[in-house]
Amino acid sequence: xxxxxxxxSAASPVDxxxxxxxxxxxxxxxxxxxxxxxxxxxxxxxxxxxxxxxVEQLLRYVVExxxxxxxxxxxxxxxxxxxxxxxCEIDVILRTLVEDEELMDLLFSFVKPDHPHxxxxxxxxxxxxxxxxxxKTAPLMNYVQEHPEIVVQxxxxxxxxxxxxxxxxxIGADETIYSNYADTMQWLENTDVLGMIADxxxxxxxxxxxxNAAEILCAVTRCAPPSLASKICSPSFVGRLFCHxxxxxxxxxxxxxxxxxxxxxxxxxxxxxxxxxxxxxNVSHGALVTASPETVDGMLESLGNLLxxxxxxxxxxxxxxxxxxxxxxxGKHRLKIVEFISVLLTVxxxxxxxELISQSAIKxxxxxxxxxxxxxxxHHHVENIIVxxxxxxxxxxxxxxxxxxxxxxxxxxxxxxxxxxxESNGPTVPSExxxxxxxxxxxxxxxxxxxxxxxxxxxxxxxxxxxxxSEWVEWQTDVLVRRxxxxxxxxxxxxxxxxxxxxxRDSDDDDFRDRDYDVAALANNLSxxxxxxxxxxxxxxxxxxx
Length: 546
Hints:
Elements: H1 13-18, H2 25-29, H3 34-39, H4 43-49, H5 52-63, H6 72-87, H7 91-98, H8 101-108, H9 119-135, H10 137-146, H11 149-156, H12 161-170, H13 193-198, H14 200-203, H15 207-222, H16 226-232, H17 235-245, H18 252-266, H19 274-280, H20 293-300, H21 303-308, E1 319-320, E2 324-326, H22 331-344, H23 350-358, H24 361-371, H25 376-391, H26 395-404, H27 407-417, E3 428-430, H28 442-456, H29 460-467, H30 470-487, H31 508-514, H32 519-531, H33 537-545
Antiparallel strand pairs: 1-2, 2-3
Helix pairs in contact: 5-6, 5-8, 6-9, 9-10, 9-12, 12-15, 15-18, 17-18, 17-20, 18-22, 22-25, 24-25, 25-28, 28-29
């Protein structure tokens, strides 16, 4: 075959450069095939790149800003290629780096306060450091342990997402790196890294800093080394978060992201994906952090201040919308408070449930459900609140939702009106001169109503309350039953297999596998596709081959 004939084999451009008597690193970096040759473990190339002088120059491309008048190659191509060479994970090159103090100093000079931190180079710095964490964990951690100022400098730069990712892995909140290096994390016990991160809520006004600080703390709650787990779930740390969150002069983003951390403490699986949970079950590093009863009690101390923020009567800001205007808009901070209340109800704390009842937190949340009929994020959380109360073991919660909150009466009144009220003192005001829009929470009200009926079959308190309301009985018979029939997709005559009538709505995978496709119709459609040239000749030829 022709590729066995030496006369037809083409020399690599990289080898051509290496054959020269005098060549530079820049010539190699300018060659498009250098990364491919690195991955192919080109011996001559690797022996050249492993030299300290070359590693140092590669690092300078990664961490040093270029002058404004520099060529594009120096500004963009060389830093990118240098970063890619490190992330090829060639052991001898990485060893040259981690075993030389001066080179490590050069790498981490990027995080010094007087150093410029462009987004581009921050990403390259992050990739190189994370590569070292994966392949040279012990030497890297030893270096950081000997230079504790690096942790402080990284915390100061958590507004940069790439640096935040480095910090997450550095403190052990990433299960892919430290499952076999628990001993290297012991030094974290003597640092106040969590406190430094939490204090960013107070010392910075940047929403990016607040979001990234919360992301790190949430990552710790999901996969924390033992040295940090006890700290983040302590009542003193939670009190520190609420102190920052409820400080009047602070931006609302502080409250939003502080509550995100508390929510993650109460329900650490909430933000974790299914694939993440499947992976966690196979590793031994870290544990999901759960809030102790003392921690929950500490959160409840600030509940009254949080509920004050749900009062919209004094707010003056206005948000115009397509259906009218919001006076005021709900805002992320109020939405996050309602979510926090929703999660509090799931922890099974009788003290928390009693406080939520006595301070009318549940009632206020349900009121917001009807005051903001177009905020589906709010409706989702309030529906969870109602369902948690109805499914709970405490009769007091059920009676509170049915009586004090009057959920049945509110559903009947809202469904009867069905459109936005033109004469309303609420925060949602319709546009003048236009027909009021249909309210947007009917679907959630229908699901809540169906849940009431379902639970009423096994709960005498709910059953008695519903049967004692003649308006509800009439609405259930005339409206709800018909609505459920219309919304039952398994009865739609639009080609959906009727054999799936009894299947759950969430069984998408099984649904896909069991569908009875019309093979004749599919063949006819395929024939028409070829007839009218929808597929190219190449596609047709490929089909024939297969």
